[in-house]
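Regression report. Comparing outputs from two consecutive submissions.

Submission 1:
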Amino acid sequence: MLWILLHNTWAQQTALIPAGSFLRGSGRSPDDSPQHSVQLSAFQIDLYEVSIAEFELFVQQGWTEDKNWSPEGLRWRKRNPQGAGKSNRAASRSNNHPVVAVSWFEAEAYCRFKGGSLPTEAQWERAACAKKESRFPWGESEDVQAAWYSGGKYGHLQSVLTKPSKQAPPEQKTVNGLAHTVGNVWEWTADWYHRESYQQKETPNPKGPSSGTWKTLRGGSFMNLPSYCSCTHREPARPDRSSFTIGFRCVYSTP
């Protein structure tokens, strides 16, 4: 089910993910083992990765509002009053592409400004492949022209080769209509990363470890091989990291 969420005069398209359980993890890697059932309450999630235009509107309207920032985020903002800068966030692309070069603190502040939050890892994973127990929204095949790097072992960053946030073939979208949960840009999640977090007993609506050094990225990017772009792959990154391969989307409570 699709919803139009209205907030701060913006219209944001979201998908409603109903309450239920899903199998989390794959068992293929040490940090996504063992595969286990997780129960989640209903939530809404952005259909699309946050665009350059959307983020720059936040910079104009919400960047200086302290209420949008966590205490750690305020300290980060004081050290980085402009973030990576508008030109780096755009990276010579049109405004309908996903914003990049944003830290976890900026992504968190943006989602707060929009009335939401960053998705937990569990929320992101359930939305990314919906009810399919496969590596990608469409199944297992890597023979797909997704926004990933499939030309060899190493990608390159001579240019930022993203696709526009809303431009994705229907067959590559999730059953709920989410675009680019595979490739394009890595997406920040709310959770701290810990390699063995799946080995701990989880309660409904898990939020991951209470502290850590790295936050968790999901989904892979335009310069990653398909194996990094699966629905279950977990990637650690420091929350102050700014990269041309990292963006995000937000989640919201249900009406």
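Submission 2:
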Amino acid sequence: MVSNTLSARRFSPAGGNGVHRPAPSLKHVDATFSSSADDGAFEGYASLFGVMDLGHDVVMPGAFRESLARRGAGGVKLLWQHDPAEPLGIWTSIAEDQRGLHVRGRLNLERERSREVLSLMHQGALDGLSIGYRTEIERKDPETGLRRLERIDLWEISLVTFPLLPQARVHAVSPTLAKSGFFVSSGR
């Protein structure tokens, strides 16, 4: 199975070719979200539209539409570092919005790896998201090498240490032990 990897980035001013360049700093959303999710719930952006990743790929708006219609959130795997032998839980919601690919997931806390990941997320040591996919339609600029990904078959989204799109981040994590029913800001 061949998989390319992307992750979401913060928007920065467009260059001469209309593509947003990676920003030098990260912007994190501090917010509280009401939820009835069990412990291990989190959310963030797995991809941002119009933002170039470190591999010179840009995901275009609507790129995930057909794949999400076919698979739904339940058909996209939640993995650790893109390892198919390391599932962490489930995606409860995956949707395109104006900014990019917004995701909500829930870690399976019966697995030791998921408990470790949740602990690292609360500590702020782990917050990267990265997509695994097959490109269906792309346009490549022969002068710059920039690839505009217009249609993507999304297979999985991983929690990762170093996302290829540095702004692809978890923005909110549920309390580890509390049964409050609320997400809390991850503090970043």
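Expected: both submissions complete independently.
Actual: both completed, but the second showed a warning that disappeared on reload.
Relevant detail on submission 2: The first helix runs from residue 65 to 71.
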